[in-house]
Design the sequence.
């Protein structure tokens, strides 16, 4: 059905003059008596100024002749007696005078979210705060050069002066100590810092070289390493030692990454051309540290290694881990004479790889401690 506007004016020869035009006006309603009247018009259908009122209707034929069913409705409208019920019953004949809002779009106000990543714990922080919500480290901390919880005020004296002072103290301490009077061994190798995610992303990977740099700087600031602790040098673990933990296929897959600029075992487990070497150094250092402790030369030790290992299983790398350093260290301790080994896995995620490796080995117990 077409939509036309029928304009009624003065009566001529007993019939209403009709004209079609584009002007759209609706009928106003009187809520008190339910009748619809055009403002400023009388009951005869004409306004006080002599101008007619507009009635928006849908006509049934192209000639503009009114259908017999709606003639009474049209008559009521012309006389100002149209009710809400009439509009409801004959809704198809009336156009709603509504504005077209198809092109409406809400006003979008761009709000920039402040986001920064802690150099100490690597976690994301939102807002304009200057202290990490998780670990309390300052946003502009110099921890990577000056040690744990190094606020910007530590840089007032000048980084070069502070670093020179630290190196001097550590050198003096290290010259006065030996393995015989040190009860704690620490192992570290800078080549493990080369293991990194090549692809640049908006969110830095939580397992990155900065974490190891922060630990090393903190120990140096405290004068522990180098200084009061017995150093353990890192060596690359042999394939034969790795095969006691991993399948040959897995070992070969990790070694293959040394020929690839960037690769991924899982979406969050990356590798670059230095990752295979770093993984062998980490496993070899953990093995030698366990042997050194069991031999009695030191009471305990700490391995500053990466990539980590407790998610790496017999046949696959996952969860940032390539080789399972904990499993390698446990077997090295047993090779040195230990009858039973307890692995305490303290992490927010379950060490599934370590559990899989020793699932059938009753001489190695794994205890999982979740950090919430």
Sequence:
């Amino acid at each position: 059905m077409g939509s036309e506007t029928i304009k009624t004016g003065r009566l001529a020869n007993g019939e209403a003059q009709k004209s079609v035009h584009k002007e759209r006006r609706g009928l106003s309603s009187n809520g008190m008596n339910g009748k619809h009247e055009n403002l400023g018009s009388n009951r005869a259908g004409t306004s006080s100024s002599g101008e007619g009122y507009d009635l928006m209707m849908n006509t049934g034929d192209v000639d503009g002749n009114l259908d017999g069913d709606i003639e009474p409705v049209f008559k009521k409208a012309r006389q100002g007696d149209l009710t809400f019920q009439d509009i409801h019953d004959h809704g198809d004949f009336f156009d709603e005078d509504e504005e077209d809002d198809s092109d409406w779009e809400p006003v979008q106000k761009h709000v920039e979210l402040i986001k920064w990543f802690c150099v100490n714990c690597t976690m994301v922080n939102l807002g304009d705060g200057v202290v990490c919500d998780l670990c309390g480290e300052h946003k502009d901390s110099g921890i990577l050069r000056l040690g744990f919880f190094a606020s910007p005020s530590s840089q007032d004296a000048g980084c070069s002066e502070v670093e020179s002072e630290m190196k001097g103290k550590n050198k003096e301490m290290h010259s006065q100590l030996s393995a015989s009077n040190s009860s704690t061994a620490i192992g570290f190798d800078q080549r493990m810092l080369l293991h990194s995610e090549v692809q640049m992303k908006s969110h830095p990977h939580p397992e990155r070289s900065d974490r190891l740099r922060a630990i090393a700087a903190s120990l140096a600031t405290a004068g522990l390493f180098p200084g009061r602790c017995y150093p353990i040098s890192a060596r690359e673990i042999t394939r034969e030692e790795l095969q006691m933990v991993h399948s040959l296929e897995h070992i070969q897959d990790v070694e293959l990454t040394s020929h690839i600029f960037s690769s991924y075992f899982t979406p969050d487990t990356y590798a670059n051309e230095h990752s295979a070497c770093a993984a062998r150094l980490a496993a070899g250092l953990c093995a030698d540290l366990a042997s050194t402790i069991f031999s009695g030369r030191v009471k305990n030790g700490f391995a500053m290694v990466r990539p980590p290992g407790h998610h790496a299983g017999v046949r696959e790398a996952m969860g940032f881990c390539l080789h399972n350093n904990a499993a390698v260290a446990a077997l090295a301790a047993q090779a040195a004479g230990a009858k039973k080994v307890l692995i305490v896995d303290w992490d927010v995620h379950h060490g599934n790889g370590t559990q899989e490796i020793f699932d059938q080995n009753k001489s190695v117990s794994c205890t999982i401690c979740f950090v919430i």
Notes: Confidence is low (pLDDT under 50) at residues 1-64, 155-167, 172-180. Residues 275-295 form the longest helix (21 residues). The chain has eleven helices and 15 strands.
